[in-house]
């Protein structure tokens, strides 16, 4: 887990990682090679909408907003299928 702390009356920010010895080079946070938490700092474009987001899970490709939209659309789709199935059963 990356933590950033700013000391009072200082222009410097202390950056640390629980899993490695992290460095800041030209204002870029650099983890050690093989750090299991390095993926958490990088923003990637969402596969669905294209906006940059920070991942919550290691291999996450879509932002949380798109995931929730897809879940809502799937829920509505299956509710509609159930309604149609019930209508067909009532007609018989």
What are the SSEs and their pairings?
Layout: E1 2-6, E2 13-17, E3 23-25, E4 28-30, E5 43-45, E6 52-54, H1 64-91
Antiparallel strand pairs: 1-2, 3-4, 5-6
Give a description of the structure:
A hairpin with a 6-residue loop joins strand 1 (2-6) and strand 2 (13-17). Helices cover 30% and strands 24% of the residues. The chain has two domains: 1-41, no CATH class; 42-92, no CATH class. It has 92 residues and is α+β, with helices and mostly antiparallel strands. The protein contains one helix and six strands; from the N terminus they run E-E-E-E-E-E-H. The protein is rod-shaped, with a radius of gyration of 22 Å.
The number of E-state strands comes to 6
The rough form would be described as rod-shaped
Distance between the termini: 60 Å
Q: Could you name the ranges where pLDDT drops below 50 across 5 or more consecutive residues?
A: none
* Radius of gyration of CA atoms, rounded to a whole number: 22 Å
Number of domains: 2
């Amino acid at each position: 887990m990356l933590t950033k702390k700013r000391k009072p009356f200082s222009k410097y920010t202390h950056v640390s990682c629980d899993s490695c010895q992290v460095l800041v080079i030209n204002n870029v946070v650099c983890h050690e090679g093989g750090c299991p938490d390095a993926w958490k700092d990088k923003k990637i474009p969402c596969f669905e909408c294209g906006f940059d987001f920070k991942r919550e899970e290691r291999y996450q490709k879509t932002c949380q907003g798109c995931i929730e939209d897809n879940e809502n659309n799937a829920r509505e789709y299956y509710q509609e299928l159930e309604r149609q199935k019930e209508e067909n059963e009532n007609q018989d």
